[in-house]
From TrEMBL:
GO terms for cellular component: cytoplasm. This is Citrate synthase. It catalyses: oxaloacetate + acetyl-CoA + H2O = citrate + CoA + H(+). NCBIfam families: cit_synth_I, PRK05614.1. The keyword Transferase applies.
Length: 403
């Protein structure tokens, strides 16, 4: 076998793999994806089983602690999370420094990073107890901070968390409840919200998770690392796709115009891509997209929304694309983001909040991966190499001699 390290030391050879299409950066026991078969497992459990039978906090327990909780552990975990749902009152003032029309993802990058300025007693990454407290705080506070970002944008008062509600119910309450009225959520909507959180909980070494690991590899504090993950998630090629899908469906406008957009997506001279289609790993139907589509029907049904125009366009777009040789040959299937926007819009979320919900749900994945990395005895600071293509060296020219 070739000793790559020795070879590089002697000859300067190393792998060149833009976008890390075939380079493993770590060992991980958290999530498994078989992209050809469309399989997604968390700690060995199929995503379909988890989405069908668990609530989000059970999945959080599974990702973070390695096992699904028994009834006592579930109760303890829920108590621990609800204990941390409030944010420091001073942090809530932080929001008023932002413009009201700021994108809520911009606000989330800022306030999540700012957590490290408030919770000093959970920033020592070498202390396992502090690491676990940081993880609990992040899972617990993310819904509060996300709901506050929404409330700030619409000029309504912040709602304090209600610990008698489930994780998803509490988030919906803090987002859509007001102090002036008794608030009730339809259990189907709360369950749909919970399922959306489960479907986004982790997805191994994607761009945002790799960013969290890379930031964490320098032993930066966990709150700063999660803020870096939020920043990476924001892009439309990643988590920002759910927002981009809805904007695309709005732009398409009618079923009749779909062929025009399919044509554009295939045109190499046109930067347009079908948002919500394609995936680096899945070369088959994203298993999460199937569950999301079913959830979409349930939500529209309970909300009494018939003939939702975006859904009609989405279904027809999916049908046409799946039969088109370009998409077939390149194995471009709908991904998790394709249907989530339609559900979230029906629930009343503005498009700008879609990626925030993704970040909220993915926080447990990020922090579980971060934790796994810190505990890995092989852990090293992430430091990719490069192929230098610049000038090999030239004589310095003083300012007065430069033409
Ligand atoms: N529409 C049209 N063509 C596409 C699409 C698309 N959505 N996605 C990929 N292709 C084409 C590319 O043009 C490329 O063609 P080529 O080989 O002729 O050059 C080929 O398929 C492979 O695409 P890459 O960009 O090389 O694949 P990569 O694995 O790097 O990218 C990605 C994956 C970023 C998800 C891509 O499919 C994409 O941009 N999709 C749209 C955005 C999206 O939905 N992102 C969400 C991903 S899931 C998530 O993050 C939660």
């Amino acid at each position: 076998a070739i000793d790559v390290r020795k070879l590089y030391a002697e000859t300067g050879y190393f792998t060149f793999d833009p976008g890390f299409t075939s380079t493993a950066s770590c060992e991980s026991a958290i999530t498994y994806i078989d992209g050809d078969e469309g399989i997604l497992l968390h700690r060995g459990y199929a995503i379909q089983d988890l989405a069908e039978n668990c609530d989000y906090l059970e999945v959080c327990h599974l990702l973070l602690r390695g096992e699904l909780p028994n009834p006592q552990q579930k109760e303890d975990f829920e108590r621990t999370i609800t204990y941390h749902t409030m944010v420091h009152e001073q942090l809530s003032r932080f929001y008023s420094g932002f413009r009201r029309d700021a994108h809520p993802m911009a606000v989330m990058c800022g306030v999540t990073g700012a957590l490290s300025a408030f919770y000093h007693d959970s920033t020592d990454i070498l202390d396992p107890r502090q690491r676990m407290i940081a993880a609990h705080r992040l899972i617990a506070k993310m819904p509060t901070m996300a709901a506050m970002a929404y409330k700030y944008s619409v000029g309504q008062p912040f709602m304090y968390p209600r610990n008698d509600l489930s994780y998803a119910e509490n988030f919906l309450y803090m987002t859509f409840g007001t102090p002036c009225e008794a608030w009730k959520v339809d259990p189907v909507l709360a369950r749909a919200m919970d399922k959306i959180f489960i479907l986004h909980a982790d997805h191994e070494q994607n761009a945002s998770t790799s960013t969290v690991r890379l930031a964490g590899s320098s032993h930066a504090n966990p709150f700063a690392c999660i803020a870096s993950g939020i920043a990476a998630l924001w892009g439309p090629a990643h988590g920002g796709a759910n927002e981009a899908v809805l904007l695309m469906l709005e732009e398409i406008g009618s079923v009749e115009r779909i062929p025009e957009f399919i044509k554009r997506a295939k045109d190499k001279n046109d930067p347009f891509r079908l948002m919500g289609f394609g995936h680096r790993v899945y070369k088959n139907y994203d298993p999460r997209a199937k569950i999301m589509r079913q959830t979409c029907y349930e939500v529209l049904d309970v909300m009494g929304i018939k003939d939702e125009p975006h859904l009609a366009i989405a279904m027809e777009l999916e049908k046409i694309a799946l039969e088109d040789p370009y998409f077939v040959e390149k194995k471009l299937y709908p991904n998790v983001d394709f249907y989530s926007g339609i559900i979230l819009k029906a629930m009343g979320f503005p498009t700008s909040m879609f990626t925030v919900l993704f970040a909220l749900a993915r926080t447990v994945g990020w922090i579980s991966q971060w934790q796994e990395m810190i505990e890995d005895p092989q852990q090293k600071i992430g430091r990719p190499r490069q192929l230098y293509t610049g000038n090999p060296g030239r004589a310095f020219v003083p300012l007065n001699k430069r033409g």
